[in-house]
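Q: Study each token:
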Amino acid sequence: MVGGFYKFVEQTLFAPCTVLQRAVSALLAPLGSAVGFFAYRSLVRQTPVDLGIKIISVGNLTIGGSGKTPLVAAIANCYENAAIVLRGYGRKSRKPLIVDHESTPFLVGDEALVYRFLVPKAIVIVSADRRAGALMAKELGASIVLFDDGFRHRSIAKFDILIRPTPEPLNDRLLPAGCYRLPKRAYDLADFVAIEGSDFCRNTALTNQTSRMVLVTAISRPKRLDPFLPSVVAKYTFPDHSFFDKRELEAIVKRHDATSLLVTRKDAVKLTDCNLPLTILEQSITLGAELSCALGRFVAAEQAL
């Protein structure tokens, strides 16, 4: 029931196709416009303050996945002494925390553990207060900070990258009527608008591929995985950031006589103790020349100050 409602909401926000979904979106449109107006006005009124450390933010105007995590990881891997600061969505703790080998998804969130795996040399900090997180990173010796989803924190001086989805969602209304958190004119406030295919390219690989795989995933808009999927015998999707029930996974494996569960790295960090065979869909990013040059100019200019 929960999964069905989640899918209904997700489809309403991104691509309403039923009469009910289109009606719900239309009814909520005035509220979305009002919320978006005040959110945008609040954004442009913020005055950026230099925290004395180079900060690069990767964000998007829409909700859900857009490739932020692999792009942040790719940029962070270009630098020594880098730190990654993110909210830590879904975690049970509230205070800023440094992610280490003892951290769990319950404590720091699944995305923080993905970063620890993808960028092992970086400091990873979960902090809803991005300013506090950046200052903590600075005290720990970081020379550059990456914000995951930091665009709305315009009171902090930084280089803002916004990922523009391709193709763009069919429903371009503002929350709660559509999938946009801010009006599209907010793209003009970014330092760089990145488009997949030209400014960065996604690379995929399978770890431990087997003959009968069942896709099990708890990410936003799981259909975006379809272009990268190998042949699978079944697909099971759960709400974004969900934790898995081991008994349910065991039943899925038995039901389909599966030789492994096909999961993303974000799912895998929550399955370390499940004792079931996993095939992991790994994703990495190659930066395009224009984005690499823009980052290089930003870092060089900051270093010259």
User: Anything to note?
Assistant: The longest strand covers residues 278-287.
